[in-house]
């Protein structure tokens, strides 16, 4: 027996056309009654898709905000790795506002109860007072870079300190450090900092800019 797939009428073997709907029967499948087996379901099984969460970027990053996208299971497992396992410090939930003043002498300070100093291993102490932002790096007059904390004469060249290496933010809620995408990275207590993220500073913390180490003294 042959089953018409359009109107579901059965015809004897050898019938070439359905008299009810006019459809050709030459390529039709046998009817379930003739084979004794039901037709398999032709619909595909649904495929589960793993989605990554939306990722937000600050306006200063110059990056678009991607939509939810599918990622392989292996990448999902890698993305779930904790910051401690990757030896990366976890940033605090504070965004750098694109409306803040640029790094430089025009920055005005917000009041904080404590006083911050950076003490290098050779005994040199940098006092941070009177500004909201302090650029850390090496001087480059040709490109107009004049950091507040100039490490050029304190092992900055040998230690691979970038010209614009990092910045310290002075805010009402405390002091924070931000790596500016430096080539040789910034470390806080031996943990690598993600660029363009804020990390809170505590008294006794150790900062490392490339190969130059400084002790954080607050008080």
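^ structure tokens above, recovered residues below v
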């Amino acid at each position: 027996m042959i089953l018409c797939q359009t109107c579901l009428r059965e015809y004897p073997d050898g019938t070439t056309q359905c008299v009810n709907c006019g459809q050709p029967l030459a390529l039709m499948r046998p009817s379930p009654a003739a084979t004794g087996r039901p037709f398999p379901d032709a619909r595909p099984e649904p495929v589960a898709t793993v989605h990554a969460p939306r990722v937000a970027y600050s306006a200063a990053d110059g990056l678009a905000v991607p939509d939810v996208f599918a990622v392989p299971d292996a990448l999902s497992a890698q993305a779930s790795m904790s910051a401690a396992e990757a030896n990366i410090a976890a940033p605090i939930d504070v965004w750098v506002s694109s409306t803040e003043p640029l790094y430089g002498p025009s920055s005005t300070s917000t009041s904080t109860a404590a006083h911050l100093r950076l003490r290098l291993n050779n005994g040199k102490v940098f006092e941070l007072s009177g500004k909201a932002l302090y650029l850390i790096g090496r001087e480059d007059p040709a490109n107009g870079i004049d950091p507040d904390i100039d490490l050029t004469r304190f092992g900055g060249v040998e230690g691979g300190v970038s010209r614009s290496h990092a910045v310290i933010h002075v805010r009402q809620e405390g002091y924070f450090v931000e790596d500016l995408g430096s080539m040789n990275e910034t470390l806080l207590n031996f943990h690598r900092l993600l660029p363009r993220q804020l990390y809170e500073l505590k008294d006794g913390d150790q900062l490392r800019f490339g190969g130059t180490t400084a002790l954080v003294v607050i008080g």
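The helical segments are 32-35, 73-79, 152-156.
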